[in-house]
Design goal:
Blueprint (H helix, E strand, L loop, with lengths): L1 H20 L8 E5 L5 H9 L4 E4 L2 H8 L8 E4 L8 H7 L2 E5 L2 H14 L3 E7 L15 H8 L5 E8 L7 H21 L4 E7 L6 H6 L4 E4 L1 H4 L7 H4 L6
Bound molecules: pyridoxal-5'-phosphate (PLP).
């Protein structure tokens, strides 16, 4: 547990240094703990260290950990691929879905929220690396998509999310984040009703500095806090993860 505490210290230092370098206010960047495969106990420890935002990729995991984390006042986001048959349950636990990437999903979320008489924050996921293995909208489809979904008043559109390219070549990774920022600007210029484009969720353990430099407001960090996971990320990120 000391390692989690120490890792959090290091991450906050990295965020602070990146903000200083980019001339940004450190309060404008939130740390989201990416907690897939991490036990409720270890998550609880991170929350005791002062963290307040977690993100899960699977509804099953959210559900299993929920009851063990009730004593903590923490915000939960959904950051994984969401199947339509899991919407009802996901909505029970999270305040924001960061992985909105298709219309049928939006329609079903809207139906459910209409029924419950409430609304939710969402981010639109964009595939900025153009990898087939990744979920998210093709960049050219983002504006038409947002125009369509802006008509659903159960959704509060807050911004965009992306998973950057996995590469040790910083320039290639940076290109992904810069593209997300550019799309954000283009959406803002469209002046679409009911659309708030303030949030950019991008950057993970290996590339959060670059993401902050390009404008991230949420960085999602797992490995650098909780250590390596036993499942490959493909289990969570692409078709293999559809159970
Ligand atoms: C796992 C995951 C992360 C965190 O990745 P790390 O490299 O472990 O920091 C961020 N975003 C999403 C969508 C994830 O699934």
């Amino acid at each position: 547990m000391d390692t989690v505490k120490n890792n959090l210290f290091i991450i906050h230092k990295r965020i602070k240094t990146a903000c200083e370098r980019a001339n940004r206010d450190v309060n404008d960047v939130r740390l989201l703990l990416a907690t897939k495969t991490v036990s409720a106990e270890r998550i609880g420890f991170a929350l005791e260290c002062g963290e307040s935002l977690i993100g899960e990729n699977k509804v099953q995991e959210l559900k299993e950990k929920e009851e063990k984390l009730t004593q903590y006042n923490c915000e939960k986001h959904y950051i994984g691929h969401l199947q339509t048959n899991k919407i009802k349950e996901a909505l029970r636990y999270v305040t924001c879905i960061e992985s909105i990437d298709r219309l049928d999903l939006v329609q079903k979320i809207d139906q459910r929220l209409q029924f419950e008489g409430r609304s939710i924050d969402i981010l639109v996921q964009v595939n900025t690396s153009y990898e087939e293995s990744k979920f998210g909208l093709d960049p050219i489809n983002v504006i038409p998509f947002i125009k369509k979904i802006s008509k659903y008043d159960t959704l509060r559109i807050k911004g965009l999310m992306t998973i950057g390219l996995f590469s040790t070549e910083e320039e290639k990774v940076r290109r992904c984040f810069r593209l997300l920022k550019k799309i954000q600007q283009q959406v803002i210029e469209e002046n679409i009703m009911n659309v708030d484009m303030t949030q950019l969720s991008m950057g993970m353990s290996g590339d959060l500095e670059v993401a902050i430099d390009e404008g991230a407001t949420i960085v999602r960090v797992g490995t650098a806090i909780f250590g390596e996971r036993i499942y490959p990320d493909s289990y969570y990120w692409n078709e293999m993860g559809r159970s």
